[in-house]
Amino acid sequence: MSQTGHNEQLAERAYNIRRNALRMGEVQGQGYIAQALGISDVLAVSYFHAMTYRPDDPEWEGRDRFLLSIGHYAIALYAALIEAGVIPRDELETYGTDDSRLPMSGMAAYTPGMEITGGSLGHGLGIAVGMALGLRHKGNPAFVYTLFSDGELDEGSTWEAAMSAGSHRLGNLIGIVDVNQMQADGPSMSVLNFEPLAPKFEAFNWFTQRVDGNDIGALVKAFDVARNHPGPEPRVIICDTRMARGVPFLEERERNHFLRVEPEEWTRALEILDAGRKA
């Protein structure tokens, strides 16, 4: 298959992930849907281009690990795991309900494919460092991917982990930073200025790339370069994303951490997403 054809397939996967997320949001009438729509392209490239895993055996020892540090992004990861066949599609309607395997904040004890419980922000990268060290000691060639947010850059523990990864030269660790410029206390850069970001990771001995996180082609190239980088350094892909990507009326709404969506707007959002796919 040509690269163009492959990228088109990944775009279709991203559309499906967005649609799954919107449908789950509609079940509860709420959710961190803007983040889910924004990160769907990254998840599509992660699960359908870069990562090695077995959908029918989510605890297979040879799998690449995907750690969701941002626990409230669980709706996005569930959407990807459903698309990947790790979670049955008929469980989508149970999102956030009693006894569901899809709680509103991700918990490893509940959900197949959810590697860690990430509700307390700023800890995912530290866990990933330990996991990458453990895999290296066992001679396991799997990669550890960890998705964390620009808000988590405010946490000292994130930078301790970044320093540790560089010091231990963890070439099996790939960090993914979602820079969507929004966190609970407001616009990320207004809360704490983390720029210039790439030189900070480089100073901690990371191999660093920065891309448009809603550009499938750019993401494919970045993930390929990260996996195939010949040096021993940990790798990070800084992804600039647009919250609510794919649903323009939500993209244009006043941006906030928890997007309010009225009951009738869920159907409208799905219709717009579907129309964009057919265009």
User: Which oligomeric form is depicted?
Assistant: single chain
The portion of residues assigned to helices is 40-55%
The strand line-up of the biggest sheet is 1-2-3-5-4
Unreliable spans: none
Outline, from the CA principal axes?
globular
Largest sheet: 5 strands, parallel
β-strand amount: 5-15%
Intertermini distance: 23 Å
Could you name the CATH topology? Answer: Rossmann fold
Q: What does the radius of gyration come to?
A: 18 Å
Q: Average the pLDDT over all residues and give the rounded result.
A: 94
Query: Which secondary-structure class do the elements indicate?
Result: alpha/beta
* String of helices and strands: HHEHHEHEHHEHEHH
Please identify which CATH superfamily we are dealing with: Thiamin diphosphate (ThDP)-binding fold, Pyr/PP domains
What this model shows, in words?
With 279 residues, this protein is of the alpha/beta class. It has a single domain (3-278), classed as Thiamin diphosphate (ThDP)-binding fold, Pyr/PP domains (Rossmann fold), CATH 3.40.50. The chain contains ten helices and five strands, in the order ααβααβαβααβαβαα. It has helices at residues 3-28, 33-50, 74-84, 124-138, 156-168, 188-191, 197-203, 216-228, 248-251, 263-278, and strands spanning 65-68, 144-149, 173-179, 207-212, 235-240. Strands 1-2-3-5-4 form a five-stranded parallel beta sheet, with helices on both faces. Strand 2 (144-149), helix 5 (156-168) and strand 3 (173-179) form a beta-alpha-beta unit. Helix 1 (3-28) runs antiparallel to helix 2 (33-50) and helix 2 (33-50) packs across helix 8 (216-228). It is globular. The mean pLDDT is 94.
